[in-house]
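Entry 12.
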Amino acid sequence: MTLSLKLTRIGLGDVAVETAGDALILTGTGPYRSVMGLTVDDLLAKEEIREVIFRYARGIDRMDFDLVTACYHADAYDDHGTFQGNVPDFIEMCRGFLPRFVCTQHFMGNMLIEVDGDTARVETYAVAYHRQELADGSGRDDVFGIRYVDRFEKRDGGPWLIAHRVVATEWRRLDPVPAGKLRGHIGVWGQRDESDVVNWILTATAPAA
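Predicted 3D structure (tokens):
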């Protein structure tokens, strides 16, 4: 089966979509012509890997260390720069390090996932924010521009998980936060325990009139 479509808005011109067994073949004929063959398993692998990256961010920012642990193979290695070692030791480091901040936010951006059989090279651009509140009422934001460079592996038919991670730092910035500009109490603020909104949104109801 062949399906033709136009993707002129993104500069690909005419694109032919063909199926060959379980493979999806996209052929571009515009100025950025490309040929890409993806199987259904490739697409599912990419989505599963993306979910792991996003769950890692939630786990770190909510200090849900069981969730963080579940992103790695049991024998995985993590190189975070100041920390290098196995997953249990990484989790212990996080338990001691993250409470120094009143909140963190890991924003995952560009993500390139290259699947090769049961192994994938994954490069994720990220900005990691760390907010400190000081005794004098002021604060400080410690912000890192980083890349998570991961080797994911799918073992014995199980899930895609991180087997080896290296955090490559691109830049760092320290921003002062003036007194009176810290986390407030109007609206819903993120929490780092079971009281966070993500844990009760599915059963939330509107207040009575």
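Annotation: The radius of gyration is 21 Å. The mean pLDDT is 87.
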